[in-house]
Design a protein that fits this description.
single chain; mainly alpha; 89% helix; rod-shaped
Length: 65
């Protein structure tokens, strides 16, 4: 269960790095910034997907004796 939470935090970390890179490189190189924007979208999506999966797993384990 702890590993699932660590993976969630890792996706948030990836999203934070993408936000930083997007902010610093937006004016320098417009084409490369869209790659960071795409990775940011994927990281946010994966965070919420993993979070929902972990919560469902916890609920399933708590309801079964």
């Amino acid at each position: 269960m702890k590993m699932l939470r660590i993976v969630e935090v890792a996706w948030l970390f990836v999203a934070a790095i993408c936000i930083y890179e997007l902010a610093t490189k937006w004016t320098e190189n417009g084409n490369m910034s869209f790659v960071y924007l795409g990775f940011l979208g994927v990281a946010i999506f994966m965070y919420f997907l993993r979070r929902r999966t972990r919560l469902n797993y916890q609920d399933k384990n708590n309801t079964n004796p």
